[in-house]
Amino acid sequence: MKIKISMRYFIAIALFTFISFRIYYRTTDDFRIGNIMHDMPHQESWEIADLSTEENSLLEHIFNQKFTYIGKGAQSYAFASEDDKYVIKFFKFKHLKPSWFVDNLPSISPLKEFREIQQYKKKRKLLSVFNGYRLAYDVHKPESGLIYVHLNKSNNLKKQVTVKDKIGFTRSINLDDVNFVVQEKVLTSRKVIFDALGDGDVALAKMYIHKLFDLYLSEYSKGIYDHDHGVLHNTGFANGKPVHLDVGKLYRDENIHKSEYSQKDLTIVATKIAQRVYDRFPEYHKDLVIDMDNYFKEVFNQSAGLYEKCCLRQ
Question: Distance (Å, rounded) from C-alpha 39 to C-alpha 297?
Fold first, then answer.
């Protein structure tokens, strides 16, 4: 009987703990100062050139504003400025560094090997994300909406920003102590395209899609491309300009210059858009798919076969 009662208490406590954590994460998105800080070696390749007077002035204007939490992605927490024109993103090291548990596994086999493998994977992921932002800042700055990247800790900014988190708590963050980027604030491609279709403005939706294709073609021409094809939430528009928001998976690959590679990658992008449109606005799907195929004919002198893939099979 005592064993049964103890088991019930254990299950009740475990269930309470689980529910409490779920409520906490849903309520706060687990934004904590500790989750945006990480001690790591200085990387010379992540340093950027000195800013111009105009760039410093803009940055000062941005940092003097208060920021409000707007959401999180796989790699960062995002906060919008008071004037709603800029976003500051703090890297979410919870997913970019090994957990405390892994780091403290004993140095005995097979735990040692497991620890080293996990540490290597996290390090490789972190380097990849930071290198992606550094690459974008170097060769794709306007198209990625990047205003500033702070990938190494520093001691020269001497600036603190005030942020309001998801549940309304205000915190002050010393910018020298954290890694972050500043970008233009945009509306996601998903929103602008779906809003246009919701209003029945198919021509406007087509224009947005064409601009996105142009954005990707500009990347291919620079020998860079994004391994993550989450097009509708990884891209957006600022004053009608297409912007590649999440550049943490941007890579350099000279093969993407070649038509057979760039066409293949853009076909994946187009297919993703076609699938999402079909899910929300099936009545416009065929029209948009035909238009996308015509875009491919103009650029690559051949269709992407989207109509055959997406329409004839439905």
Answer: 50
Provide the residue type at 225 as one letter.
Y
Q: What is the DSSP letter of 41?
A: -
Q: Which residues pair with 141 in a beta bridge?
A: none
Dihedral pair phi/psi, residue 225, rounded to 5°: -155, 165
Cβ proximity of 304 and 267 under 8 Å:
yes
pTM confidence score: 0.86
C-alpha span between 167 and 81 (Å, rounded): 17
Q: How far apart are the C-alpha atoms of 42 and 159, rounded to whole Å? A: 20
**8 A C-beta contact, residue 117 and residue 207:** no
Strand partners, 252: 224
Q: How far apart are CA 292 and CA 271, in angstroms?
A: 10
* Confidence (pLDDT) at 114: 75
pLDDT tens digit sequence for 97-124:
776 666 666 677 876 777 777 777 878 8
User: Which SS3 state, helix, strand or coil, does residue 147 take?
Assistant: strand
Q: Residue 145 gets which letter from DSSP?
A: T
* Tens-digit pLDDT profile for residues 232-277: 999 999 999 999 998 998 989 999 989 889 999 999 999 999 999 9
> Quick one: how far is CA 238 from the chain centroid?
16
Phi and psi dihedrals of 162, rounded to 5?
-100, 125
Task: Say whether pLDDT at 150 is over 80.
Answer: yes
Q: Which two tokens stand for residue 112?
A: 């040692």
